[in-house]
Amino acid sequence: MNKDELLGLVKKAVLIAQKEGKLPCFDIPEISINYSEKEEYGDYNAPIAFSIAKIINQSPKSIADTLTNILKQSKEIELVESKDGFINFYFSDKELQNCLNDVFIKKDKYGSSDDGKNNIMVIDYSAPNIAKPFGIGHLRSTIIGQAIYNLYKFSGWKCIGDNHLGDWGTQFGKLIVAIKKWNKKPIKDLSISELQDLYIKFHSETEHQPELLEEARKWFKKLEQGDKEAKNIWKICVDISLKEFDRVYKLLGVKIDKALGESFYEDKMASIIEDAKEKSIAKKSQNALVIFLSGIETPLMLLKSDGATTYETRDLATIKYRMDKWKPNLIIYEVGADQKLHFEKVFKTAEMLGYKDNVEFKHIAHGLIRWEDRKFSTRKGDTIALEDVLNEAIKRAEEIILKPRDNKEISFSQKKNIAKEVGIGAVKYNDLSRHPEKDIVFDLDRIVTLEGNSGPYIQYTAVRCQSVLDKVKKFDKKVKITSLNSEERAIIRLIKIFPETAEGAVKSFSPNLICSFLFELAQKYNIFYEKHIILNTEDKEVRDFRLALTFTTRQVLKNGLGLLGISIPKQM
Ligand code: ARG
Prior knowledge:
With 572 residues, the chain is of the alpha/beta class. Helices cover 52% and strands 9% of the residues. Helix 16 (455-470) packs antiparallel against helix 20 and helix 17 packs antiparallel against helix 19. The longest helix has 25 residues, at 228-252.
């Protein structure tokens, strides 16, 4: 019994009721089947009677009664009831048993599907900027982007992750001028924050030396023309930055398939510009080359008045390249909400140029990360380097979560590793547990905790399952369900809907649905664990069943956490 089958059966029941005169004739309204969060409303429920009641003159209860009586006749449904106007369906024991067997068979693949077979998706995420620190916004993009990538892969899509590094643009002209004027060190010994300081100095100096701007323009032009000195300085800045970024990626355990930064498109922009001219889409305006877009006030700029290319031009060349190279069905951009207009313009232009061929563009516009009381800024007074924030999370994991438990069997170096898994997992979970487009608060006290909806709580539950399993050598994995208590049933019915939860998360670009699912599963398991004996039950069959339940819970927690890019520590 899955949602689609139920949908068909409910529709059929309405038609039968109409044919037999139990309901009058009307156009059948949209039918939905929902998972029932409250167990007293079955496992799935159909609220169809409420929509029908709006059309005909009958109470939802009597409509639900009529339809339920018809549904009771179908062999496919084992248990259905009418309650408070809802039609409630229950999974049969056999279905629940099959579900557990399925987990045993599919293991790490449980919940995955081949829905996306033959589909190709490119996801553009992370994308920090050279010579600037890896920002907190890029952290969000990296974490959410990676989760979306994992989800699509789990769903059978071929995925290509691309890190569109900000390594080109007029800012490099400014940076080169600043380095040449004020830097005293060998360039390769500069850190990102020193590069940033030089960039900031450039801006403050232009207040009384506006001619610096002209100089910077010249240097970017030189860079775009392949000048040796300009290229050399640029390359050193790129290398310095990548080295620092790699430290962050390593800490996060993230590896992105490709890193075709903006500079990769340097030689691919001319043909885009030619194309736009040829198709008579581009217009000269105040010496710049622009494209006017209907319904959007500011035009897209292909070339600035000094002939320099723009971020927008590079994004167009990127689309063209990705389409030619990978022929994707979907291109996802995991980039902050402040770039909404930018992507609207780029998407529209790509369509005008004919690059949007059998492909959907999706901008996941992530919200801000804020401190409890203010905006998170990496520029102003409250500058905290991202790496420091992550290291602080790790330190807290050690102090708050590992220390109080003081497990003597864990060695010092193991503890360090566990602290890292827990600290980083906690930061990731915090970021993923809300819908990407919502703002999130960055409050380490609430992130690194075992209380409530947190990463460590879920990890801890999985570790708890493992330690139960570690106490037995083996158990009979052939699950036999005879009489489930309500705590056991609550766990299995959740495990049963993990595949559809993953599917929903893919379709709506919402890793947060996985978080809510895992939190609920962890809670249900812990309730069961507190209330029932697992290992010391007299009845071997009951013991084996509960072990099987523990095994499958751990497996599903693992699969879900894996989608979020969070690992399960060996011990906690
Ligand atoms: N580097 C850019 C920034 O930090 C983000 C790039 C996003 N991707 C893109 N294709 N424009 O603002």
